[in-house]
Design goal:
alpha/beta; Rossmann fold; 2 domains; 6-stranded mixed beta sheet; 4-stranded antiparallel beta sheet; 10 strands; globular; binds adenosine-5'-triphosphate
């Protein structure tokens, strides 16, 4: 059974380690959220995640909400294993499918077909199973004979079609999505959304970052409100969204777990 456990997870990024004091001062003054700090080595760091605790189990479909820079993308990348926590512990049980940074991991010299096979092999899917799905995947991409050519000959839109089809060829246990699917081609966007919704329903745990309430209400049963890298509130999606909007309408700074 899939599960995600985060214990006191923090992620710090080093932004600046030069000695020009005026730039340092400008950076620190521009930090309205208090997220920028000097570390012990006099470097300026930003705390993208701050002592975050989280437990997700089978059936949890969690929407990440919060203002710009709240830590949503960083959390998704930590869950995907792209970033290591600077502190704390993370345990992820289950096969993770990130539906963001889709182009990562494509072999530009291999053909479209071979990239689909490699992605499946990476997920431990046996060769017969992926071959049995290949016609369906190929039809979805609408790339035709291009699937026999190296990916470096594809346009950006064609690469995205391939990457999306390859990523969604294998049912996920843990599905991670950032801002829904950013596709400029509207005809493909509708197809991609239909495919992703089926994909969501077959996942055990789903985490999606979005600024769009309709998307969150449609896909999620829970929401996690993040500010300054920490959890403000987690609970039923409607309740957390209502609290989030009430706060924003009041123009107050968001409280944080542990704030007085
Ligand atoms: N690679 C990086 N290097 C330096 N700082 C980073 C990096 N990635 C994120 N940050 C910083 O970490 C903080 C959290 O960023 P993150 O992208 O996780 O926020 P977000 O909630 O996804 O924001 P948005 O809604 O604007 O996409 C921000 O202050 C951001 O500037």
């Amino acid at each position: 059974m899939a599960s995600i456990h985060l214990n006191d997870v923090s992620v710090d990024f080093v932004l600046y380690q030069g000695s020009a004091r005026s730039l340092k001062k400008t950076l620190l003054r521009s930090s309205t959220s208090g997220a920028l700090k000097h570390d012990a080595h006099h470097r300026i760091t930003v705390k993208a995640l701050s002592n975050l605790n989280l437990r997700l189990e089978h059936g949890d479909r969690v929407g990440l909400i919060g203002g710009n820079g709240a830590g949503k993308t960083t959390l998704l990348r930590v869950l995907a294993g792209v970033y290591e926590p600077t502190a704390g512990r993370i345990r992820v049980e289950g096969r993770v499918t990130p539906l963001f940074d889709l182009g990562l991991g494509l072999d530009m010299d291999a053909s479209g077909y071979d990239n689909i096979r490699m992605r499946a092999a990476y997920f431990g899917i046996d060769g017969d199973e992926i071959e049995s799905k290949m016609d369906d995947i190929a039809a979805f991409t609408e790339l035709g004979d291009y699937l026999d050519l190296p990916v470096r000959t594809y346009s950006a839109g064609m690469t995205l079609r391939l990457a999306f089809a390859a990523a969604t060829a294998v049912d996920p246990e843990i599905l991670l999505m950032d801002e829904w699917i950013a596709v400029s081609d509207t005809q493909f966007l509708e197809k991609a959304q239909r495919r992703a919704e089926g994909f969501v329903s077959r996942s055990s745990i789903m985490v999606v970052a979005s600024h769009v309430d309709d998307v969150l209400k449609r896909l999620c049963n829970k929401a996690l409100w993040l500010e300054r890298g920490g959890a403000v509130r987690i609970g039923p999606v409607d309740e957390v969204l209502a609290a989030y909007h009430k706060h924003n309408a009041g123009g107050e700074a968001a409280p944080r777990d542990g704030d007085e």
